[in-house]
Amino acid sequence: MAVNSVVIALVVSGVFFMAVSAIAMLRFPDFYTRSHAMGKADTLGLVLLMAGLGIYSWELSSLKLLFVMVFIMIANPTATHAIVKAALKSGLPIWTRKEAGSDGREGI
Amino acid sequence: MSSFFLAITVCVVLLTLVILYRVAVGKTVFDRIIAGNMVGTNGIVLLLLVGILFNRMDMFIDIAIAYALLNFIFVIAVAKYFDHRKAEKS
């Protein structure tokens, strides 16, 4: 029973972080702030959820799941870095609170 | 336990729909790219959850690995494409 509670805790926290990054994709005003959501919160949510699944199905295939987890932990931030560098170099304007409205609602 | 994973799968599908809104609306091209990347990572999770539900885990893990690799390559390729090209202000 303890294993199931560990699995439930991991999976629920994973889904929580993915929900956080999904909401951040909507509410953040600018591309650069949104890429924070993708690079960090989504990766953490993914890794937690996969850890829960790996523990639940405790067989040889969870070794491959461990590989996917490590790969995602390396690949996702790298992809975010690459795309943000490309956006910066191709001249995407950076959102600042001064140019936005008083509450900073209209983003880019 | 499997009904718990079914509920989690429904939650992840709803999150993906939320992100698809950003893919549709995304003001700049780059928003669409990172939103697409996030849909991809949610896709990996969905694959694994479906693997758990059908308890054919070893097959779905291979698909998830391939999809994770492809998703990463996609973003790197698009980033390299935009590196030298001046993005017009959309």
List descriptors.
heterodimer, A: 108 residues, mainly alpha, 3 helices, B: 90 residues, 86% helix, flat
Question: Quick summary of this structure?
Answer:
By secondary structure, chain A is mainly α. Chain A has helices at residues 2-27, 31-56, 61-89. The mean pLDDT of chain B is 87.
Report on the structure:
- The complex is a heterodimer of chains A (108) and B (90).
- By secondary structure, chain A is mostly helical.
- Chain A has one domain.
- Chain A has three helices and no strands.
- Chain A is elongated, with a radius of gyration of 18 Å.
- The mean pLDDT of chain A is 85.
- In chain B, helix 1 packs antiparallel against helix 2 and helix 2 packs antiparallel against helix 3.
- Chain B is flat.
- The mean pLDDT of chain B is 87.
- Chains A and B meet through helix 1, helix 2 and helix 3 of A and helix 1, helix 2 and helix 3 of B.
Helix coverage percent of chain A = over 70%
Number of strands of chain A: 0
Taken from the alpha-carbon principal axes, the silhouette of chain B is flat
Low-pLDDT runs of chain A: none
Largest interface by Cβ-Cβ < 8 Å:
A-B, 51 and 50 residues
Measured between the Cα atoms of the first and last residue of chain B, the distance is 47 Å
- Separate helix tally of chain A: 3
* Global mean pLDDT of chain A: 85
| Large-scale geometry of chain A | elongated
Elements of chain B, N to C (H/E): HHH
